[in-house]
Amino acid sequence: MRILVTNDDGIDSEGLLALKRSLSSLGEVVVIAPNHNWSAAGHTKTMHKPLRVSRVTLPDGDSGYSSDGTPSDCVALAMLGLAGDRPELVVSGINKGANLGGDITYSGTVAAAMESIVNNVPAIAISLASYVEWQFEAAAEFAATLASRIQEHGMEPSVLLNVNVPNVAKSEIKGIMVTRLGKRIYQDKLIERQDPFGRNYYWIGGDEPSGNAEEGTDIWALANEYISVTPIHMDLTNYAIMDKLKSWNLQL
Ligand code: MN
């Protein structure tokens, strides 16, 4: 199997290397990742500037590519033949920080996987639920398990699997749970400061998001030390509301 490994934390992230190492047993792994951290870059396409790509030597001695494009640009480059044949699977991560509920629309990690399914190639986005002192072992191992299941059983090319792993030792993980997206609660605050010229500038800051830990959701699974696997597709249509909208008899 030909696997593209990418991320949004950048080519130097230990999470990328842990993932690449773990997937190497399953086939040919190509690494194309951004040259800096793009966390929360969302699904973007660079259109108004050229993309630069460099060959790099990874810490394990293998070679890869780094680009000044976004995570989704890195996947697009691979799909368009930058590094030879198209990948059969894209695996993005291991992200430093969870991507739960509505996070998936902000996440560059998930956006890379979305770019893959836009190109009809199945994908895995994998994130470790911590912002400090990451334990990548369980996540790396589970990524390989999931990729080998996809290899064995196949996966609809319109589906990405959004995986979140608790940041605990492998022995402490309670199990694997197939989940739906939960509801994140963001605690953003507007922080206003002044630059040296007396002009105001703003940071959108605040505490880490929390969430409704409703049973069956990704948020519940992580809160209870399960690995969460959520199947995601691009169809954001709210089918339940369509009839209501039609009943409005909208006219010009
Ligand atoms: Mn990130």
What does this entry look like structurally?
- This protein is of the alpha/beta class.
- The protein has a single domain (2-183, 212-247), classed as Stationary-phase Survival Protein Sure Homolog, Chain: A.
- The chain has seven helices and eleven strands.
- It has helices at residues 14-23, 71-79, 103-106, 108-118, 137-153, 218-223, 239-247; strands at 2-6, 28-34, 53-57, 63-67, 89-96, 123-129, 160-166, 175-178, 183-194, 200-212, 226-232.
- The relative contact order is 0.15.
- It binds manganese (II) ion.
- Manganese (II) ion is lined by residues 8-9, 39, 95-97, 108-109.
- Manganese (II) ion binds next to strand 5 and helix 4.
